[in-house]
Amino acid sequence: MKAKIIDGKALAAAVKQEAAQQVAQLKEKGITPCLAVVLVGEDPASQVYVRGKINDCAQCGIESRSIRLPEDVTQAELLAQVKQLAEDASVHGILVQLPLPAQIDEKTVIDAIPPEKDVDGFSPVNVGRMQIGEPCYLPCTPAGCIRMIESTGMEIAGKHAVVIGRSNIVGKPAAMLLLAKNATVTICHSRTQNLKGLCASADILVAAVGRAGFVTGEMVKPGAVVIDVGINRGADGKLHGDVDFDAAAEKAAWITPVPGGVGPMTRAMLMLNTVEAARRAAGV
Ligand code: NDP
Fold first, then answer.
1. Is the CB of 163 under 6 A from ligand 1?
2. 156 to each of 28, 59, 137, 164, 178, how far by Cα in Å?
3. Which of 93, 96, 204, 221 is geometrically suited to a Cys-Cys bond with 38, CB 3.0 to 4.6 A?
4. Mean pLDDT, to the nearest integer, of 39-43?
5. Residue whose CA is closest, atom 8 of ligand 1?
6. Does the residue 277 lie in any domain?
């Protein structure tokens, strides 16, 4: 293997330490950052994610509130809960764990989170602010990807970055953040022609497809930085990325593993956003 590993766990630990230091400073001013996490239903994966976020809060000294609602909760009930949290001045960040059951319109729920408490960075206001380069909460997964690329020491400006995937939570914002760092960005999706050729010309390759092993070795430019966002559970019960790790690692200079790559960084970035929300609420 030629590539060096971008260690998401180690980087996440450093980011959480950064958050913890900021929390300690805020506490000296009498401010305790607080994140409310709303979980609907019993989805096992969502339960694991929420538990992880609550643990992260504890590690950073952030207060957390876990609100659990039944699978058959109505939209009105969920919205009432979000409204209550929105009006609670002691809550700085609100996160509604996705996906939500079929009877709930996700967009309406996300829209109900006030932009100043939208620590996931999914609300239209935060998305718009990011687009035009105004202060906002950056969506955690793409922001984590940028940190991981920067951790390699590679200059992003001027590089060709290829993002595979154009979802609102990963692909599009990852592309926008790379553009903001002055990369020349290509976004690929299911209708893209010559996807392999485009990927093979990428200095930075971000895979957010949701298909195990989608990125093969021939799609990786020698010396590239490869960021694997994918989380796919295989028939073997294990988690697999979107990248054929072994083949890609033969050509890339740097690569993220799955698990232990983008996932932990995503969670760590949420802590930074929550601290920032508390700071802004207090005007300090
Ligand atoms: P979506 O399903 O919303 O988006 C997938 C994207 O991949 C779409 O834009 C789709 O194109 C594109 N795509 C699908 N098939 C192909 C193909 N054959 N060729 C080219 N493009 C294709 O997924 P998400 O963005 O939500 O998530 C992507 C992956 O990242 C998933 O594995 C998810 O689990 C993981 N994830 C990981 C996180 C983490 O913390 N590590 C956080 C969030 C997600 P089109 O738009 O044309 O349909």
1. no
2. 37, 31, 21, 17, 8
3. 96
4. 96
5. 165
6. no
Query: Per residue in 142-169, pLDDT tens?
Result: 999 999 999 999 999 999 999 999 999 9
Q: Is 207 within a domain?
A: yes
Ligand 1 and 131: CB distance under 6 A? no
Given the residues 7, 22, 97, 228, select the one marked as catalytic. Answer: 97
pLDDT at 245 exceeding the cut of 90: yes
Residue 81 is part of which domain span? Answer: 30-115
How crowded is residue 276: how many other Cβ atoms within 10 Å of its Cβ? 20
What tens digit of pLDDT does each residue of 257-278 get?
999 999 999 999 999 999 999 9
DSSP 223: T
- Residue 55 belongs to some domain of the structure: yes
Give me ligand 1 centre to Cα 129, in Å. 23
Give the separation between CA 206 and CA 198, rounded to whole angstroms: 12
pLDDT at 1 over 90: no
Do residues 107 and 181 share a domain? Answer: no
Which of 82, 99, 115 is where one domain is finished? 115
CA 27 to chain centroid: 26
What domain count does the chain have?
Answer: 2
Residue tagged active-site, from 120, 203, 242, 244? 120
The reply to whether 284 falls in a domain is: no
pTM of the complete model beyond 0.90: yes
To 5 degrees, how large is the angle CA 205–CA 206–CA 210?
130
91: left (phi over 0), alpha (psi -120 to 50) or beta: beta
* Of the candidates 139, 151, 201, the residue with the CA atom closest to the CA atom of residue 175: 139
